[in-house]
Amino acid sequence: MTRETIGNPLSWSAQRLAGMGRGVGEAMDGITGHPMARPVVNSIGMSDIRIALRKGTIDFVALRTDVITLVVIYPIIGFVLCVWAFSAGQVHLLFPLAAGFPLVGPVAAIGLYEMSRRREMDEQTNWGAVLSTLTGRVLGPVLTMGALLAAIFITWLFASHVVWEATMQAEIYDSLPAFAAATLTSSAGWTMIVVGCAVGFVFAALVLCISFVSFPMLIDRPVGVPVALATSLAVARQNKRATALWGMIVVGGLILGSIPLFAGLIIVLPILGHSTWHLYRRAVSYTD
Q1: How does residue 8 score in pLDDT terms, banded at 50, 70 and 90?
Q2: Among 17, 22, 67, 205, whose Cα sits 20 to 30 Å from the Cα of 248?
Q3: Number of helical H runs and strand E runs in the chain
Q4: What residues form the membrane-spanning segments (predicted)?
Q5: Total domain count, the chain
Q6: Closest by Cα among 210, 283, 216 to 59
């Protein structure tokens, strides 16, 4: 009896450690990728974007209950960040937070890509089935890409703070109307707007190019983070006009969705997420 009592916890611990080891190994394999998965970049145009948006909207209508369950946390986080900016006296960070928060949007759309993939393959599409696919092979590279986007988001906030300090002399305002009035009625304020928007454009373009197809690829195939990043950049380079147009559509949609306290993102984000999957399917094919 004593031997069995001691043995069971030891056996259980060994099994858990072995499971963790396998999970870490799968995560590392997912990050580095499989040599047999060879992506090929295709040319895409306006017609491909229209088709992707149409299919994305159809996916949203068909899957809206489970989809809304997956994405509702995203606008809540955005709202909480804005509340923090008000309460912490960081009113000048409201716009950078609202404008920069979509930089991490591709992470929130992971479940949407998987739903579209499953619907395309006529597989089960509820959120439970989707979450069950986030194994080490997928989770490892997704978390790696997520950490990269989070670092870019934090860097953007730091850069916008520096622009504010350099132009507005780090003056603190008690309310949003007071800050808006000071910004819109002074040359320093307009300088901050112009410089801030220019810097923000650079960050947005960077995220668009590295995440255009990389996240759907990591869900679809074991290509690994380096190949996914390289392919996304190649798609953006080969399809400059389509990439720029898609970027404007995404920015416009996210702005419209963010205006009513981020609530509109519950609809906009799923449509853009599903559409991104279908655009990826038209932009990338494989030789294996």
Answers
A1: very low
A2: 67
A3: 14, 2
A4: 67-87, 93-113, 134-159, 190-213, 245-272
A5: 1
A6: 216
